[in-house]
Specification:
Blueprint lengths: L2 H6 L4 E4 L7 E8 L3 E6 L3 E6 L6 E3 L23 H7 L4 E4 L7 E8 L3 E6 L2 E6 L6 E2 L8 H55 L8 H20 L6
Antiparallel strand pairs: 1-2, 1-5, 2-3, 3-4, 4-10, 6-7, 6-10, 7-8, 8-9
Length: 233
């Protein structure tokens, strides 16, 4: 596929390949001698070696439109050839190939003319240069304002739901406080009644022994008053 055709597609939204794990709908950012730079929603900036691209579809309608707006001055890694791109990505976390058995992720630790090496956890994977169908390093941009507006609406709904839950909690808390207040009031009444019942001193009619004792004491003091008028008792 000639570079003249590819240069015509710069700035357009295209579909790379017709299907399969490597197929992507993307905006063409730039074209070089042996690779294509595109921007996708899922993976951000991806570099495709041209010899691995089977087809490129340019839609005559808006079917392939992406919800992406490229900001002014958007910067991405550039090199005259694909080998230079790989060199610029050394010691960065990269994703090689979109799917299939040769899909890899890890830190790009070595780049040679024949293969690249990736480190992922306790493994070092060496992949033939020929089998690199594309590579990305996670550079993305935010989606268009429409989606941001949808996200804001989602956040507003979440906040509204939070306020509703808070209101329900406050009502429940107030109801529990009211119930506890009524229980405490009943307890106070019950305890007060119990205390009054315990504090009641039985009258003389309820206790015969006490009545007799008081009568005897009254007689004693009367006799004492008669026999000794000057007594202070």
């Amino acid at each position: 596929m000639g570079n003249e055709v590819l240069n015509y597609l710069v700035g357009k939204t295209v579909k790379i390949d017709r299907g399969g794990p490597e197929s992507r709908i993307a905006i063409v950012l730039d074209v070089y001698v042996d690779h294509l730079v595109v921007l996708t929603e899922e993976d951000g900036v991806i570099y495709y070696p041209i010899h691995h691209i089977k087809s490129i579809t340019d839609s005559l309608t808006e079917k392939l439109a992406l919800n992406l707006e490229i900001p002014e001055g958007f910067d991405f890694k550039k090199a005259d050839n694909f080998q230079g791109i790989l060199d610029s990505l050394k010691f960065q976390w990269v994703k090689i190939n979109r799917g299939g058995p040769e899909k890899l992720e890890g830190v790009l630790s070595e780049v040679t003319n024949d293969y690249v090496s990736l480190i992922n956890k306790e493994e070092i994977v060496r992949l033939s240069m020929f089998h690199i169908k594309n590579i990305s390093y996670g550079l993305k941009i935010e989606k268009a304002e429409e989606e941001q507006s949808n996200n804001q609406n989602t956040n507003q709904f979440t906040n509204s739901e939070y306020d509703e839950r808070s209101s329900r909690y406050e009502e429940s808390y107030a109801r529990r406080r009211s119930e506890r207040g009524r229980e405490f009031s009943r307890y106070e009444q019950s305890d007060s009644q119990s205390f009054n019942e315990r504090a009641v001193v039985p009258s003389s009619s309820e206790d015969p022994n006490l009545s007799e004792l008081m009568t005897s004491m009254e007689k004693f003091f009367r006799n004492l008053a008669k026999t000794n008028p000057n007594s202070t008792v």
